[in-house]
Design brief:
Number of strands: 16
Mean pLDDT: 82
Radius of gyration: 38 Å
Low-confidence stretches: 1-22, 575-579
Helix content: 55-70%
Number of helices: 39
Shape: flat
Amino acid sequence: MLSFLAQSACRGNRPSRFSSLRAYPRPALVAKLLRERNVARFMVAPAGFGKSTLALEYAETVFAFDHVFWVDCASPCFLRDLDARSIVRGLVEVDGEPFLAVFEDVPPLDSLRAELFGAVLDDLLERGCEVLITCTPAADVFADQIDRMLIGAGDLLLSDEEVDFARLPSDIAETPAHDVARCRRVAALAWGEADSAAFLELAASEELPADVMAAVFALLCLGSGSLADARRIVRIDDEVARLLERSYVYVGVDCVRGAFCAAPFGVPQIAQAFSDRLAHLGAAHEDAGAFILRLAETLMDAGRCARACEVMRCLASAHVRCTWLAAQNRRLRDAACLLAARTLYASLDSRQLDAGQHIEEAVRCALLGENVAGCLAARRALACGADPAQQAVAQLVQLSGSAGDAAAACVAAIHALGDGPLAHLHAMACTVDPSVDEDVLPVQAWLQAFEEAELSEGALLCAAKLLDGAGASEGLLPAQLCERLAAAVARDVSRAFTATGSLTLAQGLAACAFSRVLERGYLDMPGLDSRCAMAANRLERALSVQRMECERAHARKLRSRASFESTHPDAFRRVAWGTPPPAAPTPPRLTVNLFGRLEVKVGDATVESGHLSRQKVRSLLALLVLNRGRDVSRDRLAAQLWPESSPSCRRKNFYATWSQLRSALSTPDGDCPYLIRHQNGVCIEARLLASDVLELEEVCRALLFNRPGRGGWGHLFARVEDSFADELLPGDDGCDVIDGLRADCKNRLVDALVAASGKLLDEGDPREGLWFARAALSRDDSREDVYVALMRAQIASLQRTAALQTYFACRRYLADDLGIDPSAETMRLYRSIIEVEERV
């Protein structure tokens, strides 16, 4: 038998690797394969298109896995036996009847081996056998063969019905199947469990010519655009473009339109998949740094600044990132790409950056309302030896984000710079804080500095602030001054839009403020051109979205900090930043009692969900509670609950059970704060959990480590008898993990009872020691140390007859069930009873 061969037994036994079939049948493709059974049928597509699973479905549907050979051509044994011309002989020796031979993942073959493999296929077909071959486009050496059947990448794309197989009704309603793009109809992307990183790793590992692989990588990074733009980065001739359109559908090439639209992969996933090949890809285009720079520049030209920053952050070296950010700072700010630029700035070592870089970061933070981060960047700029103009901008940022003495210090620093070439900065300071110059109104200072000149970025931002405050305080901005201010803004914004057809962020904010003044009726002036106003609104919306994201991130950080401080009290800790968020209503406590009948309460209400009647749901809840808030791997839990199932079935069963448990524990508003799911693990929220499992830990610790004294021990005994009279989930049998945890809990409780009995005897309280020893024996009569503890307590309580009966019961158990004699300690106690009797 060939070493690389998997064969289903000729008697109809199903092979183990086929024990779990995919859940989504494709009868149309199986029917297409059935039309021509007397020729070699090739399935040619990249990894992830479902070639092997289609061959698997054909083998089950047509042959029921009887007389089926599955040849793993990725094994080196395939090439060895191909060169030895022994493949057909080996197959025929195992099964003399006509069979199905599936050659999976045929590698690229040279001309001699291609001829030998063709002879293998011809020989099998002449014997009446059927042949299926799967390979990638680069390995299809029989592309020019006429007498074969081909199922290509386009044939393997999902139909509308197949796309809807794995989608929820809400997803179908949001995006109907006919609107799903062709690039997203790949089986691994549509039917996979949102694991596009694995698909990209397979795509990056495919053996492709360097120019084709570079084209795939570039198109994935760009995401969408025209082929003409992509050709400025990599060489994509007509032949390569047709290959990508025909076989590599996930990059979305359309040769007729001269455009492409790839599946939406994240840049971090692309970088992770192609990191090992990046140097090789760059070698075909001067070097990797220049290659990445051209990608980022193309994205910037297309207006996709955020993705350009992601490309630089994930793919470029630190030096290239620093140089590129310095060159693109102004362009990124004008396009309202602030958050992505901040992320790129954060990826660099601050010691590598100059004062200009820190000033740009400070301005970005000020625009986003991140005052703390803005002041920090401004201080870094001042520490790097900023020039006077940069010092003034840094002080302005600190002034806008400070109050009290800190703001006064910033005002004094701006005054110290003088009024010569920095008059416009002094005017901006008046706008930020009118107390800078109490004799001059902010608008007057602004008009004196800017009215006759073309408005700079800072002047436009100040104008936006002044116009937004127009009419808010009577007398602060007279209508005459406001009209002159608005006229200057309208003049420069209209002139800029007419010249370039676009606006910068500062121009957009000033234009929106101007439009709002007109809407409030404070001024009677002609409005901006409609297209100009729309462009301004787009920029303001983009900035608002990023500001809200910053606020959400800040709120998450405050909640995390507050949570840490509440769980890690420290009398010396002081909150040095931020304002604590308003106290949110605390969810009701979840109570889960596992000893005896399962009892689940949310607050004071008992959960009566039908989901908890299912054993797997109860077992999953028990495992989470027994781990007491620690993260547990999803794969580990699935393997514990379904040990006999395949990994794919385990994952599906786990997600279904998790959903049922989450539904059972949801609050009336539909939220479930008790179950937490991370990237690779799950846990239960320990801060909201109360359970008799936690009570067991507390009781056992008290029995083991507390000193006997007056009171307290009777209460502990009552807790043991009330809460732990039954075992953990006594009715849920069949789960090995639950059985093991049940035995572990019992052993820990018995150990603690035995220890407590001994301590009470040593302290001269034999009656209470007798209670605990009897409680230990009632829970486990298979341990000799429990019998010994009870005998000691009975002897100390002068119950010698009962002690003898305990000894005989112990000896019978040891002899009948274990076939051993009592220990020396047991015999010593027995002799102590007998010797007393003899002396009497």
